[in-house]
Predict the 3D structure of the following.
Amino acid sequence: MKFRLLLTAALLTSASLSAQTLIHAYDFSGGTVTDLVGSANATLMNGATVSNGHLALDGVNDYAIFDTQIVPTGGTAFTVMISAQADGPLNLVGHHALLGQGNYGSPAGFFIGYHTDNGHMRAGDSWEDIGVPYPTDGLWHSYVVTYEGTTTSFYLDGTIVGSHQYANPIASADSANTVLGAAIYGGNEYFKGSIANVQIYNGAMSASQVAAAVPEPATTALAAAGLALGVVLLRRRRAVAA
């Protein structure tokens, strides 16, 4: 969809104007999970598919697994951005994760997902409850996690909704590779829905940078629709003038 391409372009522009470095990016074009910036590609597992600019997952047993860890480890500052649309109306049973990396145990396990006990978002074994409900409206939402050395922050649709202090959200040793649509190990907590616009940065974006890079989904969609309409009208005017 055009609005996802616009969002990707906005994120790439934001990276070029800030101190952060974009190290991995995925727009899910061409039916594959191919890194647009680095060389970390993913393999589709158990029937996961890529179409129309997103990764489609059935919530049963499919996911995409990378051949490496794409989120920086060992105390390195990072920013993770991911857009997702959970199938709705939702009947959430059991944990699920949009992105996972590392093994179980504090603080090794890092993931962005849903906690079945309280219906809240979570971001790893060391931060099981962010304190905000998981979106259940079936719409596209943007999720951003930043880590700058002492504090991990979580953003929903460009707005910070929680912060947590710990020194290392992802262990550098004995960590499993990154997966999309499941938790760590790529073998459980499956997500049902679609994932798009995955970007990984070296360095932590500030709150203002995240807000500028990730507009609200509805606003982005309307802007894209307006741009597409403007292009059509401009072409028609040029055709009439000719």
Remarks:
- Confidence is low (pLDDT under 50) at residues 1-18, 218-242.
